[in-house]
Every structure is written in C-alpha cells, then in structure tokens.
Amino acid sequence: MAAQRAYTTHPLVLRRVTVRRVHEVTPRMRRVVLGGEDLAAFTRDGTAHPAFAAPGFDDHIKLILAADGDVRAALPAQLPHGIEWTPAQHRLTRDYTPRRVDQRAGELHLDFVVHGEGPAEAWSASAREGDELWFVGPKSSLRLPERLDWILLIGDETALPAIGRFLDERPLDAPAHILVTVSDDAARQELALRDGDTIRWVVAEPGDAAALDAAVRALPAPAGEGFAWAAAESRALLPVRRYLQRERRLPKDRVNITGYWHREESAAPEAPGPADAAAQGPAEIPSPLPWLVARAALQLGVVDAVADAPGLSADALATRLGVPGPGIGVLLPLLAAYDVVVGADGGAGLRLGPAGEELLDDHEREEYTGHEAELLLALAHLAPALRGGTSPWRLASGATLHDTVTHDADRYGELVEECEQLVFLLTGLTADPLWGHVGTCLLTGPGSASVIAALDDAGRRPRLRIAEEATPAGVLRGHITAPDRIDWTAGPADVAVAAKALAHRTDEEGVQLLTRLAGWTGTAVLVEASRPDGLSPHAAEAALHAYTATGSPLRDSAAIAALAQRSGWTVDRTIALGWGTEATVLRRA
After folding, report:
1. What is the rounded distance in angstroms from the CA atom of residue 522 to the CA atom of residue 32?
2. Quick one: angle between helices 371-378 and 362-369, nearest 10?
3. Half-sphere exposure of 549 toward its Cβ, with a 13 Å CA cutoff?
4. What contacts 511, CB < 8 A, 6 or more positions away?
5. What's the rounded Cα separation, in Å, for the pair 391 and 252?
C-alpha cells in the first residue's frame, strides 16, 4: 500500500486585504486582523479565483512588501492558474502563518513577533485600519498521519501562531506535548490545552541552538506512534533534527522541521551611495577554495564525525575516518578558517563552527555533494565546451547527462526529488480542457511523480503508463502514491506528458524523445522551465546551469518549437504555469 502524500496543494492566488484592527497579544506579539473581498471567491481581469483556504495549522502565506514603498510595482503577475514572479528590484517577501482564518467574518489573523527589526514587523508596527496588504498562498498544507498516539510541537516565539492554531483547531485527537523557547516570560501566551497535554516554556535568547537542543533532549519520550513538528531559527533546528532522527529514531515521514527565520551573524551594512561605491572599487571574484574544502569535509565524513563526537583531537579524527598521513592536518586549518570547525589549534578538541552546523542540513549538503555540485565542477570545462559547441558535462564525464542519469538510479533519483516542487505549479495544466477526452496518459521525465500527484489533486483519473526506456526502472516507484492504475510498459496513449524530460537532454536527445513519443500519441505536453524563477537569488545563473547540463541555455518557446518541428510536431498552444515554467501542448503534424 502506498504511503500517504505529505502535502495537499492549493491554487496560488494574489489577494488584497486591508487592516481591520490591531492589538497586542503579549508585549512580544502583535496581532493584525485583515479582511477583504479577496478572501472570498472573486474575479479579477476576467479570471475567477477560489476563496482563500488555509486548512493546515502551519500553512504559510507570502506577504509582499517593497523596500521603496511601491508595493504595486513589486506584485507578481497573476496567471489564470498560478503566479509569475516577474523581476522587481525592490520586492521583499516574508512568509507568515495564519493564526486564525474566520471564513464567516471574512477575516485573516496574522501574528507578528515584536523584535524591532525586519520589514514585516515594521509594517505591522505602523499598520492602521484601512491599510492594504497583498499576499500569495498558501501553496500547500501538511497532511498529518491519521493515527497517532502523540504529537510533539517544538518552536520559538515565531512558531506560536502555528502552535496556537493547532491547539485551537485540533487537526488530530492525540495528546500534544509542547516546548517553546521565549526571550522572556512576557512572551508566554494562554493556549488551549487539554487533559493529557503538556507544555514547557524555556527562556533563551532567540536562535540559541544549545538551549533549544538541551530542552528537546530533556523532554520525556512518550510511548506509541508519534509525530514531531518543529519551527524556529534555521540553524538552531539542525541539532534538533539530528537528535530526533538519529537518536530518537523517528522516521523521516514522522518529522516535519522548518526554519522560520535565519539569524545573521552580523548586521548588514547600509547600501552604499554613489560616492561610496566609487571608493570601494570593483567587487572581487570569490575564490572556489572554501567550496572545495567544505565538499572534502563532507565527503570524508569530517562534519558528521565532529557532530557525533565533539572534542575529538586531530589524530583521533584521522583515526576515526581512516585518513592516513598528514591529510587531516592539512585540511583542518582551512576548515577552521571558514568556520566549519573550531578548536583546530589544539585547544579543547574539535567542534563544529557555524558553517559546519549548516552543513548538517541535507539541503545544504546537496549543494556540495549532490547533482548540483557535480554540475558546478563540470564548469571547469566551460571554455573548451563553448569553443566546441558541446556541454561542459559531456567534456567532464565523457557522456551526456542523459546517458549518465539513465544508467545511475541514484543520480536520476536526485532529479526526481528536485522536481517535487513542480506539483505546486501544475494546476494550469490539469485544468486544461485537453483532459476532457483523455483515457490513457503516457508519462516520462523526472517530474512524472508530480504530474500524477497533480492529476489526483484535480480529480483526473486517466490510466497511466510510464515510458521505461526514458525513465530508469524503479526510480519513480518510491515517489508515487497511486501505483494501482499504472502500467510500467509504454504504449499508445491519448496524451503524453514529458515533465522536465528535456532539462537533462541535449537537443539531439530531445528530438529523439519527441520522435519516439510521436509513435505513441498524437498529443504531447512538454513541461519545462523556460526562464529563471524571478524570486530566486540565483536567477542570473539559470541559463549557465542549463548550458552546463545540455549544451543549450534555458529553452524558451521558440527553442521548444524548433525541437518540435524537427521531430514531426507542431505547437498548439503554451500554458503559463508560473515561476518561469510553461506547458507546451504539441500536436502531431
């Protein structure tokens, strides 16, 4: 039996609300009550949008602010089924959890921690009746397991809205054990506890990882099946995640940990004026050395070893890792210089520094050891690749990326995981009229699992086939929650959906795939990123990453049309899905 999916997706809608009232919950928490017609179903620019829904206790909406005060210029573009984050120089976004959604009164309650800094807190401090606020979301809601004996809710002050909403609405009937760190006792709130619940308040500085870790370890371990939810400063949660999964041995699907904010080690300087910029001179090009050193520390196991046994000497670390000779001695000074470890000078033993603590996070690791890291290393061959008209990946590995991932299930699995966010963008595709006459759908590409999930969410139930020769056998099985209607042998179908299937293929390999699909169906849909995500801080790098992988930049509509024409297809229409992603509907010529 397939595991339950962890999230329910929602349509992404841009909404305008206005302030109705503001009051102080505690000296450390300010509540802003918002209302407006956009919380109900409404129509804008001829497109109907559903009523606001945030059923999950820890749902997030994205508030849209502007550093220059011009919020209208910072708004994203509303698509019929999604959001396109167009470039906006002064846009600021912050995620907040609805404390309460009152559908009858048409009100949304947001709680803001009073800490005296940040654009969202500043907005709440000056908010007056009638002031407008724009937001998007939520994009999804967490699905808790149906049967639990207990739930553990851990957080700092920023998690109190989610914890309070859970206790008010009780999405599951199980005792709740709550741990909250607060900066002082004035931040404590009255919460709706029941018999069997427990709560512990711990006074600690915001972002104090040691205090949070110690408090979590001091909690008793309830008997039976449980679920742990935690939200706080991102780095402070790293030892909590490690403890719950490695020592308490909670399965990954019974742990949900989210970094609600990130503590800056030092205050950011003010933006320089023209005279300051001239005095500073040109920006330096950063060295790749810290990246390579961090990669080596992860590959050798240095980060995990120091995390598991703080206080190791350099010799003991070398013995533990099985690294002969002076290798660790060469590496440690650099690891200390980049704050991966501290104590490398022969003091009280080694322990992790701030950078090392961040490397305990799986997502951070992937930047140094996963597929993204391998693409980055391939850039060493960028110049000869540009001269030769090929991809850096091919020069670095001797094979195309498609050949590589087809014969490496683990690497293909990384592509599948990267595509999991695709499910939030596919509403525009699943709402398209083409599904009205589809009985059988052929799927290919690492985004296939997301397509299946989106079809299920939309109530579309075609018979599904997987093109095995284009998708390594078995890789998708662990990501698909509805295997009962899937035929793992490709064959004729009413429509074929290739989800991110071109992103790891050269133009020639793309033509081969499209030609093969033309033998199975008369209608095909290509789901691909055609331009950078406007919210990503790395948007400028997107074209280079694509070129590194395939020898082609991000393929826009014209490039997709050219590949289609070469393989016997014509473009019927393009469906904008948002976040730079499009679905191109092809008809066989």
Report:
1. 53
2. 30
3. 23
4. 563, 566, 567
5. 37
Instruction: Centre a 10 Å sphere on the Cβ of residue 550 and count the other Cβ atoms it contains.
Output: 26
Q: How far is CA 426 from CA 86, 105, 334, 452, 495, in A?
A: 18, 31, 45, 10, 16
CA count, 13 A, side-chain hemisphere, 495: 22
Q: What's the rounded Cα separation, in Å, for the pair 295 and 366? A: 10
pTM of the model: 0.85
Strand order across the beta sheet in which 569-578 lies: 486-487, 463-466, 440-444, 495-499, 523-529, 581-588, 569-578
For residue 43, the tally of other CB atoms under 10 A from its CB is 8
CA 277 – CA 415 distance, rounded (Å): 41
Spacing of C-alpha 510 from chain mean position: 28
Rounded to 5 degrees, what are φ and ψ at 578? 105, 165
The residue length of the chain stands at 589
**Per-residue confidence (pLDDT) for residue 538, from 0 to 100:** 75
Residues 530, 532, 535, 536, CA torsion sign = positive
Q: State how far the Cα of 586 lies from the Cα of 589, in Å rounded to an integer.
A: 9
pLDDT value, residue 3:
47
- The angle formed by the CA atoms of residues 525, 558 and 88, to the nearest 5 degrees, is 95
What's CA 264's distance to the chain center, in Å? Answer: 20
- Could you give the C-alpha distances from 515 to 200, 557, 564, 575, in angstroms and in order? 62, 18, 9, 22
Q: Report the C-alpha dihedral over residues 533, 538, 540, 543, rounded to 10 degrees.
A: -70
> Is 452:464 a contact under the CB 8 Å cutoff?
yes
Distance (Å, rounded) from C-alpha 566 to C-alpha 549? 21
What does the alpha-carbon distance between residue 317 and residue 348 come to, in Å, rounded to a whole number? 14
Please give the pLDDT value at position 262. Answer: 83
Separation of alpha carbons 82 and 78, rounded Å? 6
Across the chain, which has 589 residues, the per-10-residue mean pLDDT values are 67 96 94 96 92 95 94 94 90 95 94 87 93 95 90 95 96 94 94 95 92 93 92 91 90 91 55 36 77 93 90 90 83 91 77 88 84 92 94 94 89 89 92 92 92 90 77 59 65 93 95 94 95 78 91 92 95 93 94
Shortest CA distance to 339 belongs to which of 364, 359, 325, 361? Answer: 359
DSSP-derived pairing of the beta strands 569-578 and 198-203: unpaired
Q: Are 165 and 45 in contact (CB under 8 A)?
A: no
| Beta strand ranges found along 143-254 (DSSP E) | 150-155, 176-182, 198-203, 226-233
C-alpha distances (whole Å) from 148 to each of 162, 176, 219, 226 are: 19, 10, 18, 5
CB neighbour burial string for 46-71, b if at least 16 within 10 angstroms, e if fewer: eeebeebbbebbbbbbbbbbbeeeeb
Instruction: State how far the Cα of 416 lies from the Cα of 477, in Å rounded to an integer.
Output: 11
Structure tokens at 76: 């994203």
